[in-house]
Each structure stands twice: as structure tokens, then as C-alpha cells.
Amino acid sequence: MISGVAWVFGDDLNTDVIHPPEYFSLDPERVRQGLFAKYDSTMVSRLRKGDVLVAGRNFGCGSSRETSIRSLLLNGVGAVIAVDFARIFFRSATNNGLPCLTFADPADLARVPNGGRVSVLPDQGLLSTIDGRHIPLEPPGRFVRRIWAAGGLLGLLPAR
Amino acid sequence: MSGRTISDKIIDAHTVEGADEVHRLVRVDAVLGHDATIALLADEFDVRGLEIWDPDRVILTNDHFSPPSTVERADISNRFLRFARTRKITNLLVDRGICHQLLVEHPLCVPGALIVGADSHTVMGGGLGACATGMGSTDVLFTLATGTTWLRVPPTIRVVFEGTLPDDCSGRDIVLELLRRFGESGARYRSLELVDESTGRICQDDRFAIANMAVEIGAKFGVFRPDEVTVEYCRRRDGVTPAGLVESDMDAAYERTVRMDLTGLTPRVAKPWSPANVVALKDLERVELSVAFLGSCSSARLSDLAAAAEVLRGKRVHPDVRFVVIPASMPQFQEALRAGHIATLMDAGAIINHPSCGPCGGIDKGVLGADDVCVSTSNRNFRGRMGHWDSRTYLASARSVARAATLGYLGGEE
């Protein structure tokens, strides 16, 4: 189970905002510091392991720079729940074992309190709030489960 | 059973196995990568002791840091070059321009090809009727090692261009109009099948501009139906006629069809901070500018440089504006030099940088400061994309950018 604080965002949140280009680096500490650095410079210091990003439509649109995914993982983000995802972001997050799930009913986005504590059961497709609201998510498909089970896409590389 | 679209056919022809009803394992014809995103996967590739499945089908080029402007980027660039050279990549193109432009200048990018690239604008290969798409470094590592990737078969939206493109408009205006209509996610996970039925035919450079920004609409592919324009381009490039043009069936199943009459089109502009925040340039209130940028894989080809030179001939860049021109590739640069366009631009006061991504991604020379207001031929005006969080970027065509560079402002003309 993934458990932490919900950080709620709107639609079309792009990867240049998630991880500004100037933080592109091969140095993990530099990559970690860049998360939402311009959007909210206090966010990295306030994020805790298991926190969950919650967003509207088209989360992660824009650049394919995988530093955005790495930064989310380096900052302990446990899952991203959105109405839907941009395809490159969804692939890259899934490939790196960061669960991305969508609401079964997009209207449920409004039921997740920003800053409230939530828990997510990725395999079951369930998000629960601390005050007992249970919000159904689209359960992950067989193919996504297979990548998660392999520990990420590279676990599916044929044995040499 | 209904017929198949272009992307259906290309995916079918490349399928190795179907994992389920939606996911396919497909083989690819080419892989594209650049300094930034290949450097991200190099250590992992080495540690795992992997080998490139076919070094002749890989195109690698340094474009984000070309030449590098900081010590850290020089180190990233060197990591990339070491990876490419030890792997004996046949098509390692060093300091030759932006990877997407170099892809479409390469014989591997042909109609019907399936191409994966470690950058979102790989979709530009669709300008030649290829199914080309961008992915992250982990995906591309997998493809470099296996020659395959996993795909979902996307539904197709057909876009038919009709009428006549006005002289003051280009592919940039067409795709900005598409963005206005579709929004940032209107073609999310879709294949856009682009059919040119316009009277004058959209020129190949403009097709690249349109396919390039298909990803800004969320599309997986932005694939032009190959026609005589495609064939002529490939013939000039390769010396032979491209084989096996893939077209859709007469009864192909489209999610929907959108028709766009080009006749009434006027120059478009995308306001901060979304490429879909598009209005007609004539409806834009006057915006004072400090920077004009003609560059990026979305523009800065020969026809764009020619259009800018035509606007600037005998004129001067406004003294309050820095006009940065970065040709998309060395061949485009050299052709523009031979044609005299570069001299015209320089005579007017433009500055020319080496073919590379430049400030488009906010990481190289020409980035914006807090007070800068920029008009750009690049593909994204997301907040902070080209530099400071408070800087503002408007997207437009090369012609509109050049015109604004002379005026010192954008919009507000009667």
C-alpha cells in the first residue's frame, strides 16, 4: 500500500513544469532538487515518501526527458493518479515502476482533498482518503501488471 | 471487418507478437537518439553488458549541447560520444544539427517505416509517411538492445487539408490552427493521419512542421499520407523512388475525420503558456518584444530561412530585439548560405548560431531572462520552457517571427 499526502494539480501539467530543463543532469541530487522547482520551490522539502500526485487531464505532456520520472522517484512520490496521462510520461513512469492510475470516474478528482492523507492500492485500483472515502481507479491492465511484476521494463529484457 | 488506417498497416507489418488485444511487440526500422537522453541510459546499458541490436539502424546526434556551454554539459556530451563510439554506431552525426531534422534527411526515414526516438519530437518522421514516435530513455534502451518495442495500437483521427494555403501562411500556421481546434490532448494516444488534398500541395518543409507538433496535440503519430511530394523528396534525397508507400484502405475505420479548409487561414500565434492557446495574429493585442527566435526542429529549414530573408530584405531588426537564428541542420544552413538567405538575415541584424536545439529547451545559448518576451518558431511555450519562469514566449511562423523582429512587437496591426 502507498500512503502519504495528496498533492492535487489541474489539467495539462507538462514535464517542463514538473522538472524544469535547467535541472537536466546525470547527477541524481541535482535531478532530485529540480522537481517542481519553479512551480513551488518549497515542494521538494515538503514531499515525504509515499506522497501521491493527483491531477486532471493529460498529466505529463511535453518532453520525453526521463529526468522528470527520476525526480519523482528520488523524492519518494509513490504514485500518480490522474484523469488521464500523456503517453510518453505514462510509458516512462510504468517502465520505472512508478504506478500511474486513472480515476474510474473522472468526476472523482474533485473528491480528493489537496493536502489530505490518502492511501493507494495500485493492484486493486483503489484510492482511500483519511476520512473514509473510497475512490475506485481503473485497475491496471495485464500488460502494465507484467511490467510492474518484472520490476520495470528492463526486467523484460531477454536473458542473454 | 473494416479496412485499416496507415498506422494500423505499419504496425501490423512490424508485429512480432501480440501480448493481448491492445499491446503488440513490434520490430523497429530505426532508432533515433541525442546527447541528453542517450547519456541518461548509457551507464545502465554498459552495466548490463548489452549490445546494440543493429548499429546500422541507429542514428545518434548531439544537438542539445552542441557545442556545450557549461562544463557539466561538456561531460554529458562526452559521455554520449563515448557510448556512441564504443558501440560503433554507423550514423553518429556529431554537431550536424537537430536530431529530428537529421532523421528526415537520412535514408532510414522512409514511408512505411516504424521509428522510435528518445525525444518527443521524433513524430516529425511522420512528415514522410513513417510511423515515428518519441519515448523515454528506458524504452529506448530496451529498443537499442532488442530492436523491438511494445506499442498500443492507436485509434486514428484523419485530418484532411483542403483548399489553398495563402501566401502569408505556412505549416506552422496550419498546425497552430490544429492545436486551437484540438487542444493539448485532443489527439492523446491517437494516430493523426494527415491527408493533403489542398490544391497547391503543402510543401515538404511545412509537412515536417505539422508532423513535428502532432505531439503537442498528444498524438502518438502524425503521419502524412505519402504522395508525389513525399516521393519527390525521397527521390532527391536517396536517388531512388521509395518502395511500398503505405496508404489507408478506402473503408478504413477512423475515430473521426476533421476537414480543414486552408483557403481562409490567416497567420496564427500561440500565447503563453500553452501551444494550444492559439488566436489569429490579427486579433492579438500588441506585445512588445525583446527576443525573436527562428530555430528548433519545428522550423528553421530552408523554406523558413527563405521566408524570413524575404521579410527582412532591405530592412533592419528592431534595435530593442535580439533576433537569434539557428538553422535546423548543417545541410539546411549550407543551402541557405548558398542561396544568400543567411547574408540577408545578417545584413538585417540577425545573429546566427550553430545548428542545434539552442534555447528551445531552455538549456543552451539564447535562453530567456525574467523580463524577456519572445516570439519563436519553436514548438512549446510552456511556462519556464525557454528560460526564466517569468519569461513569456509566443509561437508563430518564421515569416511572422521575422516580421515581428523588424517591428519590435507582435500583433496590434490593423
Q: TL;DR?
A:
By secondary structure, chain A is an alpha/beta fold. Chain A contains six helices and seven strands.
Describe this structure in words.
The complex is a heterodimer of chains A (160) and B (414). Helix content of chain A is 24%, strand content 19%. Chain A has six helices and seven strands. Chain A has helices at residues 15-18, 28-33, 43-46, 67-74, 87-95, 142-149; strands at 2-8, 52-55, 79-82, 100-102, 117-121, 126-129, 134-136. Chain A has a seven-stranded mixed sheet. In chain A, strand 6 and strand 7 (134-136) form a beta hairpin. The longest helix of chain A is centred in the middle third of the chain and has 9 residues, at 87-95. The radius of gyration of chain A is 15 Å and the shape is globular. Chain B has 414 residues and is of the alpha/beta class. Chain B has a five-stranded parallel sheet with strand order 5-4-3-6-7. The longest helix of chain B has 16 residues, at 71-86. Chain B starts with 5 loop residues before the first helix and ends with a strand. The model of chain B has no long low-confidence stretch (mean pLDDT 97). At the A-B interface, helix 5 and helix 6 of A face helix 2, helix 3 and helix 5 of B.
